[in-house]
Amino acid sequence: MLTITHCDADAETRARGVAAAARYFADTGADPVAAWRAAEACSFGALFDRDALRAWYLAEDAAVLAMYGRWRHAPAAVALEWRAEPAGAVIPP
User: What is the pLDDT of residues 63-76, one digit of tens each?
Assistant: First the structure.
């Protein structure tokens, strides 16, 4: 499940951001789980799929722009994340 973290946005604003990110993945056919894994791998210095990482950051960009209009209006630490659902579930390989 896509989620927005590290911001104080209300539920409606967060939903708008998540919807924009989901729409990006749907429109491009990119896999959000593979993209999240690439973002995680990159942050830990591991090998990652460059195209998947790019998809993740473009989806995050879509989310932030839908929520705040511009990056400069967003909190510095705002982030798009993938959370397994239900909580504690393992993200499939």
Answer: 999 999 999 999 88
Q: Supply φ then ψ for residue 70, to 5 degrees.
A: -150, 150
Put simply, whether the predicted model's pTM sits higher than 0.90 gets the answer no
CA dist 9 → 64, 73, 91 (Å): 11, 12, 26
18-40 pLDDT per residue, tens: 999 999 999 999 999 999 989 88
Cβ atoms within 10 Å of 54's Cβ, excluding its own = 13
Q: Looking at this protein, which amino acid is placed at residue 41?
A: A
Assess contact for 22 and 4: CB atoms under 8 A.
no
What are the residues whose beta carbons fall under 8 Å from the beta carbon of 71, sequence distance 6 or more? 61, 64, 65
| H or E stretch at 79 | strand 79-82
CA distance 11 to 27: 24
